[in-house]
Amino acid sequence: MSTEIEINSPKRLRHLRLVGIVALLVAAGIVASGIASRVHAKQELTTWSAQQAVPTVVAYTPEHDADAQALVLPGRLSAFVNAPIYARVSGYLHAWYADIGTHVKAGQLLGVIDTPDLDQQLQQARADLQNSVANEKLAASTAHRWTEMLKQDSVSQQDADEKTSDLVAKQATVAAAQANVGRLEALESFKRITAPFDGVVTARTTDIGALINAGGGNGPELFSVSDARQLRVYVSVPQDEAAAIQPGMSATLTVPERPGVKFNAKLVDTDDAITPSSGTLLVQLSVDNQDGVLIPGEYTEVHFDLPTNAHALSIPASSLIFRQHGLQVAVVGSDNRAVLKPVSIATDLGTHVEIASGLSASDRVIDNPPDSLASGDEVRLQGTPGTPGTALAERRAAESTHG
To answer: 41 vs 32, 48, 339, 401, CA distance in Å?
Structure first.
């Protein structure tokens, strides 16, 4: 039995050694494969990171805007003629005959004022006139008699001249009395408050029995009449656009309460001066309002169609870069690297701007450039091969396999 054990032992040892060597080789193969996979995954990750560092951008070429520029500015509608009516005589309001919203004709009676003091002054003035006329007649008769007596040498020349001068004085007194009566009669005519022109009563700030004080502009007006068949529109145009505003231009108006409805207006004139406080040019337009749709005093938006600059290029405002070096635009060079160009704006149209200088029509402008973009940075145009989505999926698969 001992002999069999000794004979079989070397075979068993060789078998165990072979098994161990195979196990070591297998383990070494697994380790080598894992190391190779990790190295490959690291290389893919490095490549993906480098691709991610290159921003993907959208580029376009600037365009010439052939359409007219739309300049939209706020404005206010005003009646073509507006007259506040004040009292020229003092008294009490006897009656009014037109309330707000009443359409009146020129000369139509609006109200009547009771003026007892003025009435008494007029009576006194007429009595004074009668007295002056009587004294003039007596002076004229006396002067005539003394002139006849002078021809007969019955009176002296001095006495005749005194009577003649007295007649002249009495005539002057009559003229003064007549003028005073005429003045008071003119004031009496102001007891009747009438409309100065055809229009609409827009205000009535008095009532029957109210005390009326004579004067213009010192107190509230009794009535206000407006002619709104044609309206004025006042607009303040910024100085940058003032040169394009010319008399005779057409514009369109819109009001908030009538969305989608446009009204045609014509530029009448400007004040030919820039207001220092606001830096704007005051522009006046006229708009027909025979149908009474528009209301004086309301807010409106005025749309001007300004001529375009043939050399200006239009780009979206999102392409502009505001940095310490001034206003810039990023373009894609021939080597797919970014180039920052300084530009100047001709007209700001809100979502779009017109560039006066700094760009050419062949430039590929980057829309919405990254904040960190600098000149010389490599960029990738959207739609080119090598999008990062596939590489990212492959890298995650490799990590899950060898992690």
So the answer is: 14, 10, 34, 10
pLDDT digits (tens, 9 = 90+) for 126-154: 999 999 999 999 989 888 888 888 888 87
Contacts of 149 (CB under 8 A, 6+ apart): 155, 160
CATH assignment of 87-204, among 1.20.970.10, 1.10.287.470, 1.20.140.10, 1.10.357.10 = 1.10.287.470
Q: What are the tens digits of pLDDT across the range 69-127?
A: 678 889 999 998 999 999 889 899 999 999 998 999 999 999 999 999 999 999 999 99
The 10 Å CB-count burial string (b at 16+, else e) for 338-377 is bbbbebebbbebeebbbbeebbeeebbbbeebeeebeeeb
d(CA 279, CA 138): 74
CA atoms within 13 A on the CB side of 323: 17
Q: For the segment 188-234, what is each residue's pLDDT rounded down to a tens digit? A: 999 999 999 999 999 999 999 999 888 755 667 899 999 989 999 99
Locus of tokens 């507006």: 82
- The answer regarding whether domain 56-67+311-378 maps to CATH 3.90.79.10 reads no
Closest CA to 329 of 356, 369, 362, 361: 369
Statement: the pTM of the whole predicted model exceeds 0.90 = no
